[in-house]
Amino acid sequence: MTIGGRAVQGATSFEVRNPANGQVIGTAPNGSRDDLAAAVAAAQKAFTSWSQKSDDELAAACRAVTEKIGAHAEELARLLTLEQGKPLNGLGSRWELGGAAAWAGATAALSLPPRVLQDNAQGHVEIFRKPVGVVGSITPWNFPVLIAVWHVLPALRTGNTVVIKPSPYTPLATLRFVELLNEVLPEGVVNSVSCDDRTSNLGADMATDPIIRKIVFTGSCATGKKVMQSAASTMKRLTLELGGNDAGIVLPDADPKAIAEGLFWGAFLNNGQTCAAMKRLYVHASIHDDVCEHLAAFAKQVPMGDGMDEKNVLGPVQNRMQFDKVARLVADAKTKGQLLTGGEPGEGLFFPATIVAGLKNGDALVDEEQFGPALPIIRYTDVEDAIRAANDSENGLGGSVWSKDIEHARRIASRLECGSVWINKHGAIQPNAPFGGVKASGLGVEFAEEGLKEYTDAQVIFS
Ligand code: NAD
């Protein structure tokens, strides 16, 4: 861990395993409540001077962080593959590190200058955005480095200091990332703590901590709700990026062959362990069989295996809990629909890309967030039914519409209850577009100026 600029070992540690082969690849500190208190105190102390930095100084610091990420991208990518399982290649860990540097650079270039609301004989009214203080960041195991950048960079850019706690499944790349940041930032500005959630839960402690002023949390809906409850007593600011059950709707005029690759990666990016992956696919009856055929054919030729082997573009499921969930949902789906490809658990944590047609809303693989390599296909005849079924979910993160007629697709997009809708692609986020969920998928947005504002409180000065 890095606390107040110093490396802290922790009294005990826990093992981190490579999901591709089960081997221990390292250990991480099992931090205590005292370690968390020290990290929060260090961040609070650093806030005094960090929050007084000029806008230019904060932007320059974020640029220095961006350079650090770029210079250590390959090292971090390798660590990420070893602990997360995603391949080095394809849309894997090198791609994640590319995104991390791109997002960091884009955040450095943002700013929230003061705005004059009134300037006349009656008075001068101006709005300023002020940092909130110590920000607690809690991250999941699917995109550990990229999500750390999404949390930490906007906090720094707006003059806050940070304590970050990675998932116990994937702590190592994040701990190293924070160590690297400390080479270019003053001590205490970014601190890390890690713990084995089975023996201590520093995430829960962060949510009730009286000094932490904001929690930015990315993870499951269930944990997000707990964070929201815990944060109420200290009136913390919250950004919650939670689970999704994104629907894709294929309209009758789409070209099944041309869209197969986009559909596949929309659903199977990071082995489906992606918040805004396509998790249900509604296909018009007139092209249903063709879409199934082309999608299954594409899925069958995607190489899966140990992520350190450059030829693979899909790796294992990250952990046993998630693997068992996918296996349970697929076993149930096979009794209700037609298996198009995959379906049988492989060696260790490898689960082949699985597609099951003939399902409907109410089936577990359609209703629950699988967060893994299994896609249900639902046939529809009336697009109104498809829209209703897509919206019949407590989640509302993303969605997509697939059609040659972009205007028609846009009209359908506007009726989907979710924060982002893509046309003829799925899940393509970018740093200049706010991203967040509606309904149970979260609170607030990340990225762009809208995301930056969430790390600030407004102050209006009347003179
Ligand atoms: P999770 O909720 O199990 O864990 C997330 C983090 O919360 C971990 O660091 C964990 O240690 C910590 N935590 C556990 N209990 C806690 C508590 N009581 N209080 C505070 N923190 C606690 O989620 P996960 O399994 O790591 O991630 C998968 C989920 O994350 C999926 O549902 C996925 O859709 C979602 N996700 C959402 C986005 C998004 O941007 N909307 C992005 C990535 C992942």
Automatic annotation (TrEMBL):
The active site is at residue 241. It comes from the Bacteria. Keywords: Oxidoreductase. Its EC number is 1.1.1.257. The keyword Protease does not apply. One of its GO terms (molecular function) is oxidoreductase activity, acting on the aldehyde or oxo group of donors, NAD or NADP as acceptor. Signal peptide: none annotated. Residues 12-460 form the Aldehyde dehydrogenase domain. SUPFAM superfamilies: ALDH-like (SSF53720). InterPro entries: Ald_DH/histidinol_DH, Ald_DH_C, Ald_DH_CS_CYS, Ald_DH_CS_GLU, Ald_DH_N, Aldehyde_DH_dom, LUC3-like. It catalyses: 4-(hydroxymethyl)benzenesulfonate + NAD(+) = 4-formylbenzenesulfonate + NADH + H(+). Belongs to the aldehyde dehydrogenase family. Homodimer. This is 4-(hydroxymethyl)benzenesulfonate dehydrogenase.
